[in-house]
Amino acid sequence: MNKVSKLTPIQKRRQRGAFSLLFLSFASLIGFGILQKNTAPVTYKFVLEKEWIAINEWTLDSRTGSYGFSCAALIFAIWAIFQFRRNKKIQLQSALGGFAILMAFLCWAASGKMIPFTGLLQGALLLSVPLIFGAMAGVLCERSGVINIAIEGQLLAGAFAAGVVASLTQNTTWGLIVAPLAGALISLILAVFAIKFSIDQVILGFVINVLVIGMTNFLYKKLLIPYQNTWNSGPILSPIEIPILSKIPLLGPIFFNQTIIVYLMYLIVAVIHLSLFKTRWGLRTRAVGEHPTAADSVGIKVNNLRFRNVIFAGLVAGLGGAYFTVGAVGAFGKEMTAGKGFIALAALIFGRWSPLGAVMAALLFGFADNLQGILSITGTPIPSEFMLMAPYIATIIAVTGFVGRVRAPAADGIPYNRGGSH
């Protein structure tokens, strides 16, 4: 007990992760292996379109597969414990162990079925796109010291603007141009009231969300439904196939045969990550989010920087909202973002306010969402109602701190008044 009490927070988190992986590996071995009665084969299909073929498909006995992957997870868990004892990182072991448990689950759940593995991963990426845009908007705001609960409203405004403008012009480009502006307009409301007037940022965010939902619902009912052919029948973006890269087995169809929104997402994530940690702007942004008084003392205009970053966050979220309309279905639907802004906020927390961490968390939520859809279609021993809960269970796990204690930027949500307390 005395030794445990001397562990640092990082060591405690690694210890929790290593032993959690060990517990889940044993549970997988028992539930998916020992108690597995069905020995029907499960088939994983890896070829999606016209990419080069490395492995077309892989068929194995479901019980044998569950045993094998569960035992592999146990090995990775033991490896993680040894790494923890040596005070080393366990991310690799945790990732490999988690993947092995997932494969054991798939062998059990898809017994006698076929899983389009490449399609599963491609769909997970697509479902993650608005989450990643929303999480990046959250990173920009909260690293600056402003809580952004209004991600949902920014996504919805971007989706509405993109859908309507693309319908009127029958041009997806105009939809992509207008969507960020709609998100920035919502961010302007957040910036003015949160930074200029020091309104409680959590309450303000919820009010903005309700405002955007109400406005879009009203316009949807009064304008988009009666005049659907003119106002709500926009085109959608076509995938752009990158030569050679799109032919790479498994990775090609997933990453390099996508629409322009997805390619813009790659660029935005890279720019935000590099700018946040490698530029003067990033240093100043992190400074005003952690200690605005110290930043002010060296000449940084705290509220001006916060204001600009919040507007930029709105541009990013608005572009993410365009994915729902011009990037997917074309037409705008009532409340079509369906809480994705809040899941993006959970991804931000799960990712510890880091751009790349938030991306990984968003991909996890997108994967859980797509997995339940595919397993519901193929048929599994799990009731469909429980499968529909999977993405939200992952979200709850993230925000309740199962992954360890996370700390927001120190000045997050605290208005800064020069010459006074903050």
From TrEMBL:
Question: Key word Cell membrane present in the record?
Answer: yes
Report if keyword Repeat is assigned. no
Q: What keywords were assigned to this record?
A: Cell membrane, Membrane, Transmembrane, Transmembrane helix
GO terms for MF: transmembrane transporter activity
Q: Report the InterPro entries cross-referenced here.
A: ABC_transp_permease (IPR001851)
Q: Where does the UniProt annotation locate this protein?
A: Cell membrane
Example GO CC term: the record gives:
plasma membrane
What is the membrane topology noted in the UniProt record heading this document? Multi-pass membrane protein
Where are the bilayer-spanning segments? 21-44, 64-82, 94-111, 117-139, 146-168, 174-195, 202-220, 255-277, 310-330, 342-365, 386-406
- Please give one Pfam family short name: BPD_transp_2
The record's PANTHER family line, in alphabetical order, gives: GUANOSINE ABC TRANSPORTER PERMEASE PROTEIN NUPQ (PTHR43370:SF1), SUGAR ABC TRANSPORTER INTEGRAL MEMBRANE PROTEIN-RELATED (PTHR43370)
What's the protein called, per UniProt? Answer: Unannotated protein
Identify the species of origin.
freshwater metagenome
